[in-house]
Design a protein that fits this description.
Number of strands of chain A: 17
Keywords (chain A): Cytoplasmic vesicle, Guanine-nucleotide releasing factor
Largest sheet of chain A: 5 strands, antiparallel
InterPro entries (chain A): cDENN_dom, dDENN_dom, DENN_C, DENND1A/B/C, Intein_C, Tripartite_DENN, uDENN_dom
Distance between the termini of chain B: 18 Å
Strand content of chain B: 15-25%
Pfam families (chain A): dDENN, DENN, uDENN
Low-confidence stretches of chain B: 177-200
Subcellular location (chain A): Cytoplasmic vesicle, Clathrin-coated vesicle
Strand order of the largest sheet of chain A: 2-1-5-4-3
Largest sheet of chain B: 6 strands, mixed
Strand content of chain A: 5-15%
GO cellular component, one term (chain A): clathrin-coated vesicle
Helix content of chain B: 25-40%
Shape of chain B: globular
Oligomer: heterodimer
Mean pLDDT of chain A: 66
Number of helices of chain B: 7
Order of helices and strands of chain B: EHHEEHEHHEHEH
Low-confidence stretches of chain A: 420-449, 451-537, 541-546, 554-651, 659-670, 679-764, 767-809
Helix content of chain A: 25-40%
């Protein structure tokens, strides 16, 4: 129907491809694919273009998605993963828009591609390919790595509103774009404008475009939809039809603006919208005012608050469609446009008249009618919200619909059959969603807590190869026979890429016929030769925990951190109760700030946060998670000891915030009892990442301090944007949010270092910084201290930290 | 970019199978590599023609799956300069759909979009819609009318040249190289979007 997501999808994914980047004389091309029987040549031709949309330097692991549209205007999603350490990109095509799951899938695949056991990859792919897609709300489990690991996919419930932080797209969008600009885009979409999103990051770009479409639910963008536009398709920006296109910054630079014509442009990096229209003000103002009010209530925006705010606006705008439904016995339900206008408040009428002429609204009505005519009734999230909004009309209408349904049933027509087919739990699940959502932050926290716990158990040394989702092995429902099936789908190798150093193709069966590489591209391979091979079973990184935590922490915070100080008592109680630290309110309070510094109270709040994060139980868990099971010292001991260092009373400085700025220079905020300094460090001389590790630790290391204290965590009370240091405009804003995110989320070096904590030879300053960011402030040695005190380019000694670590062994 | 003085965007509308794509391909003679439509849901072809002594670039756009729309709404073509509505003279249903497609166009008579009705496939023997019926319909709705055969290349060139000439005339009258029809001018200095200052 009017939905652009395919129904009755048979396979979890359609095709997995590995793509070789373009070289001087050759475009990007697919070097291998699974299954081999996937033969849509048009799509296979397009995949390389979207996998390498333009020439870009990739310093970090990056996930993004693109969308292909077929002749029926249905969407195929392409999920893409770029790893700076890999010569190729990997892409998975699916009809299912399950972003989080497919990014996880790609991470797992990336690891398996380097497995020493060649069958690992193909077994994983084929068992996933042939697995049955479970019922909504359930999970799909697939075992791999000879049954030692389980890959789990959540099958989304129907009508589930995207929520923060679980939905990474929305979280990204909300982070990058303020709510007023989100509203402008929302309005532009309702007016079916030609809309361009742009960003330097493909990940942000595709996430924002996808989310903008999610937010207009239950409407669906009916026009051109290209979350990432490759440079080669740049001319499509000239399309006179409505479009929503994500254009990488580099690509947008090459377009002549005058040729594009009237277009709305959202720059997701600078959070600016450029529009020749006044669509937002042309929407009925009371609707906009209440939307604005909802979005201003920061505390309610975690969970599905943002989605629901927009949904409510749509309910107010178009919910009245119900009054225009015509129920006639033995006839399909129809929609009366005139009645629709007439029954609305006069103020809304002009807008609605215009609305009737939009493709997006036509689609909406058609979809509603289909739902009714197939017996699904008023059963989705929109209808539910509508009933909240106007309870009266709901019951009357339902009665009407019930009568109509029974008259249809009496007919014994096809309708009955379709009702049976579709008799759905949607309403129930809708209610459930709402309930969940209603709990707002609490439930979001709960989610985080449980994730943290998962992380903890997964990090237990005793279960080195434990499952993704929980520390305990599960018996996997997928049948072992699927494994045996696999090979039939591979064609026999015809040519090999390069015999000894095949481009990450470990499975000869996966190799299919392709043209021999040109000499240039052969130069790509030698690196791979010295790839250390770890013994199988391989180690699977636990990615999602970190990603999701990071997303949460990245939440844009609009209120200044100073607000935190409004409840210092609570923070202090936390300190007191959690350990015997001598920190007391009196001691803890800092003297007035130096003139160059921002509000002292904001710093103190940051301190407190760092402080108790260091001993919080969940922090410990997180600390472990990026490390592998070979962690020698029981991390618990390490973490537990920290609080005993009396940071607060010490005159020694400690880092209260720090990280890298956009240009890569690390900046730290140091504080001791009486003062706070901003220290800018020169970049580290050494970087300890090996060319290709046996285990690609792809977790995005994040600063855990901010979220670790679940009770106290309140990101909405502080800000990352409202404050900038006077000393250096490049210094990232200081707040509960650690500036590290801006860069280190994507920073693979740091991520790789997650495994280095026990590795004395490579323990670099970065690691130390990282630990500090986690809230582990070991006694800085005198040298370090003096270094910091003396100002700018001090470089903490490596040995110090190393000693600190061994002490916990 | 190319040395052309005018760029005109033409949008094709009509039921599936009426030969929209063939029509364009015939006109452009494959001058622009086709085929993206299969993957991103939209396709266009370009042909540069000369009108008078001026070079005019025609971009002809076609979206996949527009058949799913009951009617084409104005948002779909408001940035276009011309709209070509195509039906198949050998297929009555494609003609019967025209009023649906046009519903919008009538309501927005103010729209300056140049509208052309095209009966395609005149090479076929099984004509169901007499030329006169098509003509009358076009007249009633204030459209140009032409019958073509993409297969035999009948009238295809003429169709697009006619459009180019007409748009040129319009453009000369407004004395601006019309990149965009600007039907929807709204006060750009909107209060609510104070962040629209970025200019590239």
């Amino acid at each position: 129907m009017s939905s652009r997501i395919r129904e009755n999808v048979k396979h979890l994914f359609e095709c997995f491809c590995e793509v070789v980047p373009p070289s001087e004389d050759k475009d990007a091309w697919v070097i291998q694919q699974y299954p081999d029987k996937y033969k849509d040549l048009e799509v296979l031709k397009a995949v390389p273009k979207f996998a390498y949309p333009y020439k870009f330097e990739n310093a970090v692991i990056q996930h993004y998605s693109f969308v292909l549209t077929d002749l029926e205007s249905k969407w195929t999603f392409g999920f893409c993963r770029h790893d700076p350490k890999s010569e190729t990109a990997i892409v998975v095509l699916s009809y299912l828009p399950w972003h989080q799951s497919f990014y996880k899938f790609l991470d797992t695949t990336a690891v398996l591609m380097h497995s020493s056991r060649t069958e690992d990859l193909s077994e994983f792919l084929s068992s996933l390919y042939y697995t049955r897609i479970s019922e909504p709300g359930k999970k799909i489990f697939v075992t791999f790595n000879r049954g030692q690991n389980t890959f789990a996919v959540d099958v989304p419930r129907p009508f589930q509103l995207p929520s923060i932080p679980e939905n990474r797209n929305l979280t990204e969008y909300y982070n990058a774009v303020d709510t007023n600009n989100m509203m402008i885009i929302f309005a532009s979409m309702l007016y079916e404008r030609r809309i361009i999103f742009t960003s330097k990051q493909l990940k942000r770009l595709s996430a924002c475009v996808q989310s903008a479409n999610d937010i207009i639910y239950p409407m669906i963008w009916q026009h051109i939809f290209i979350p990432v536009l490759p440079l080669s398709l740049i001319d499509y920006l000239l399309a006179p039809m409505p479009f929503l296109i994500g254009v990488p910054d580099e690509v947008l630079k090459k377009v002549s603006r005058s040729e594009i014509g009237e277009v709305v442009i959202l720059d997701a990096d600078s959070n600016t919208v450029e529009t020749p229209f006044d669509d937002l003000n042309n929407l009925p103002q009371d609707v906009i005012n209440s939307l604005r009010k909802h979005l201003r209530n920061k505390s309610a925006l975690l969970g599905d608050g943002v989605s629901r705010a927009f949904l409510r606006a749509l309910v107010q705008l178009i919910g009245g469609y119900r009054d225009a439904l015509k129920f006639q016995p033995r006839q399909k339900v129809t929609f009366d446009e005139e009645k629709f206008i007439e029954t609305r408040p006069v103020a809304l009428q002009p807008f609605l008249r215009e609305m009737l002429n939009l493709q997006i609204f036509q689609q909406f009505i058609e979809e509603r009618l289909t739902m009714l005519n197939t017996g699904r009734g008023f059963s989705d999230e929109f209808e539910f919200e509508l009933e909240n909004y106007s309870a009266k009309s709901g019951s009357k209408l339902k009665q009407q619909y019930k009568e109509w349904t029974s008259s249809m049933k009496k007919e014994g027509t096809a309708f009955l059959k379709s009702v049976k087919d579709k008799a759905n739990p949607a309403m129930k699940s809708a209610v459930k969603t709402v309930k969940d959502g209603g709990k707002g932050m609490k439930s979001a926290y709960k989610g985080i807590r449980s994730k943290l716990k998962e992380g903890h158990s997964a990090g237990e040394p005793h279960h080195p190869h434990s499952m993704y989702e929980s520390g305990k092995p599960r018996s996997a429902p997928s049948s072992p026979t699927t494994k045996r099936k696999t090979l039939s789908d591979f064609t026999a190798p015809v040519a090999s890429y390069k015999k000894d150093a095949s481009l990450a193709i470990k499975n000869a069966n996966l190799q299919r016929s392709y043209s021999p590489l040109s000499p240039e591209s052969q130069s790509l391979t030698p690196d791979l030769l010295d790839t250390p091979r770890s013994g199988s079973p391989i180690e699977i990184p636990r990615i999602d925990l970190m990603n999701e935590m990071q997303d949460l922490l990245q939440l844009k915070l609009d209120t200044p951190p100073v607000d935190r100080s409004l409840k210092p008592v609570r923070s202090l109680e936390n300190i007191k109760s959690s350990n015997s630290s001598s920190a007391s309110p009196e001691k803890w309070a800092l003297p007035p700030p130096r003139p160059t510094l921002p509000s002292m109270s904001s710093l103190s709040s940051t301190q407190s946060r760092f402080y108790h994060s260091s001993h919080h139980r969940d922090t410990r868990n997180l600390l472990q998670s990026p490390q592998d099971e070979s962690f020698e010292s029981p991390p618990e001991a390490a973490a537990r000891k920290v609080p005993q260092l009396d940071v607060m009373n010490s005159s020694k400085p400690f880092v209260v915030a720090g990280g890298r700025t956009e240009n890569g220079d690390p900046v730290f905020f140091l504080a001791n009892k009486s003062q706070v300094n901003v220290v800018k460090l020169t970049p580290p001389a050494q970087c300890s990442t090996s060319r290709r590790k046996p285990t690609d630790v792809t977790e995005d290391l994040i600063c855990l301090d901010t979220a670790s204290d679940l009770d106290d965590f309140d990101p909405l009370k502080s800000s990352s944007s409202s404050y900038s240091t006077p000393t250096d405009s490049q210094v990232p804003p200081m707040s509960v949010l650690n500036p590290l995110y801006n860069s280190s989320y994507e920073n693979h070096e740091i991520m790789s270092n997650g495994t280095l904590i026990h590795n004395t030879s490579s323990f670099s300053r970065q690691d130390q910084d990282l630990l500090q960011d986690y809230g582990l402030h070991f006694n800085f040695s005198a040298e370090t201290q003096s270094g910091f005190d003396s100002g700018a380019s001090a470089e903490p000694r490596r040995i110090n930290t190393q000693k600190q670590w061994t002490k916990f062994d | 970019m190319d040395d052309y003085k005018f760029l005109f965007k033409v949008v094709l509308v009509g039921n599936a199978g009426v030969g929209k794509t063939c029509l364009v391909r015939r006109f452009t003679q494959g001058l622009f590599p086709p085929g993206q439509g299969a993957t991103i849901g939209v396709d266009f072809m370009i042909k540069t023609v000369e009108v008078g002594n001026e070079k005019v670039k025609l971009q002809i756009w076609d979206t996949a799956g527009q058949e799913r729309f009951r009617s084409i709404t104005q948002s779909y073509y408001r940035s276009a300069h011309a709209l070509i509505l195509v039906y198949d003279i050998s297929c009555q249903p494609t003609f019967d759909c025209l009023p649906d497609w046009l519903r919008e166009i009538e309501e927005y008579a103010s729209s300056k979009v140049l509208r052309v009705l095209v009966g395609n496939k005149i090479d076929r023997d099984d004509r169901e819609i007499p030329t006169q019926v098509g003509e009358e319909f076009a007249e009633r709705h204030n459209m140009y009318f032409l019958e073509t055969s993409a297969k035999e290349s009948d009238n295809v060139e003429r169709l697009f040249m006619q459009i180019a000439e007409d748009l040129m005339k319009q453009a000369r009258m407004t004395n601006v190289p019309r990149y965009d029809p600007n039907n929807y001018n709204v006060d750009p200095a909107s209060q609510d979007s104070g962040c629209c200052s970025r200019l590239n």
